[in-house]
Amino acid sequence: MNSRMPKLVFDTNIIVDALLARGHHYKYAVDLLNDVASGKVEGWYAPHSITTVYYLAGKTLALDSENRAESEKRTRELVKELATILKPLPQVGDEILRMNNYCPGDDFEDELIAQLAEDYLPNPLLVTRDKWFLKCSKIRAAHPKEIVEDGYQAWINNDAVTPFIDLATQQRAIRPQLERRIHTVLHHGQYIIGPEIKQLEERLSGYVGVKHCISASSGTDTLLIAMMALGIGPGDEVITSPFTFISTGEMIALIGAIPVFVDIDPRTYNIDPAKIEAAITPKTKAIMPVSLYGQCADFDAINAIADKHGLPVIEDAAQSFGATYKGKKSCALSTIGSTSFFPSKPLGAYGDGGALFTNDDNLAKLMREIRLHGQDRRYHHPRIGLNGRMDTLQAAILLAKLDRFIEWEVPQRQAIGARYSELINSALSAQHSEQGVVTPYIEPHNTSVYAQYTVQINDRDALVKKLSEAGIPTAVHYPIPLHLQPVFSELGLKEGDFPISEAAAKRVMSLPMGPDLTEAVQQQTVNAIRPAC
Q: Residues 149-171: pLDDT tens digits?
């Protein structure tokens, strides 16, 4: 499913036709519903219309049966089966007040269906045989026979742009769960540290496989909280990667410590363990590896060095939640795991959010207190902390997303990432090319959640322009390594100090990625890349 795919909104009469094999054109209605069930198109219904469907279907089945109880049971089964195929349009309650598209001979129920579709869906297509709908509807409308005979290509929005991360499709897939969770919070009104916070922390700690999960306000604040809990402060040194988002080095500096950069492995883009020990000094207080692009760093090697020198390890897993390293989950690989729930992350909220993970009881206690102004009980503050709590609404949203993430999105991300590499490498092989595009390297003992699908390219600017002209967005993560950022100029570092990070920054480019990315969009993207291979 994607933005170019028709969004079919089924009128009541079409649903009844399909359920009861009614009328001259019911086979076209059945064909459309089968296409929805197989994933070829998206299908929607208006919740208020289901009572009409139930009434009409039940009445017809009752006429054909001498057993009323059996006909009622069959009606319920049909309607429930329908609900597994079509998705409900959201209805918040003020749609009736906003309906103003009166047309002589209109139907109030139909008008409400059109209002819901217009409110919620991009370029919806109403499937109906109602003459008023076909003539007066405020949204596009077509007879099912017309849609089937013309083919979907005639109804595709060819002007749509492929999203870099398709959050809209994900939201449509779990809309009922989202609304149920959000409405629960609105009704109980516990917007800070509500019951959803504990529920989320228990679910996440169980998924990751650690004793403690501490939710927090962002994946940036989690890094700060982790270092505060470890007692890191002014003048201390924390070893990390220069090839990452600013927040990694930023939080080290914010706490008064000094970021000490170590160059990356050229294949995985993660910190190179072989270079860490040389960077350790008496001032070193922690190692903070980044699990970049969705793949975990080499934690056995990193932890061995840390243990030798008595140092804690904080995994910056903002991009790798859901990935595994030698069978263990990201965030369960070190002293403290830290992740982000920024909307574009593998598991994303609809605002900022993050979480910390540890098996250390004392560290868990400290981090819980630090995120709540250093409070161990109400109005009693034994330490300095910050306002680092996650909002209850964000916890509710994450709970609504979690089952799909665990059961479907993580394996789907892995499959889509592997398909990208197969398509690109096949193009390289066909053109006997040994350079041009370098696909991601995933260690054999790792799985990646492909927070980004990032390639290296010789002429990045030219390819970015070409893809943009084809309606395909790209991004660069990250164009300037941290040691060359102006904010860290006082460290006295210069170009050439970390050559692998600098070379990667000039060549990397991320392609559209997400669990709902279609094979067609992937193929279109690779076709645009092919000349660069």
A: 988 877 766 556 788 999 988 99
280: CB partners within 8 A, 6+ apart: 239, 305, 309, 311
C-alpha span between 205 and 217 (Å, rounded):
17
Q: Is residue 467 within 8 Å of 525, Cβ to Cβ?
A: yes
Domains recognised in the chain with CATH numbers: 7-160 (3.40.50.1010), 173-397 (3.40.640.10), 407-532 (3.90.1150.10)
Q: Which token pair is 419?
A: 């398909």
Ordered DSSP codes for 295-318: ----HHHHHHHHHHHT--BEEE-T
What is the pairing mode between strands 446-447 and 324-325? antiparallel
- CA geometry: angle 203, 209, 212, nearest 5 deg: 65
Torsion of the alpha carbons at 59, 65, 66 and 68, rounded to the nearest 10: -50
Averaged pLDDT for residues 464-472 = 91
DSSP letter assigned to residue 487: G
- Does residue 336 sit in helix, strand or coil? strand
Residue 502: other Cβ atoms inside 10 A: 18
CB atoms near residue 7 (< 10 Å): 23
Is residue 318 within 8 Å of 245, Cβ to Cβ?
A: yes
The DSSP letter of residue 356 is E
What does the alpha-carbon distance between residue 62 and residue 74 come to, in Å, rounded to a whole number? 10
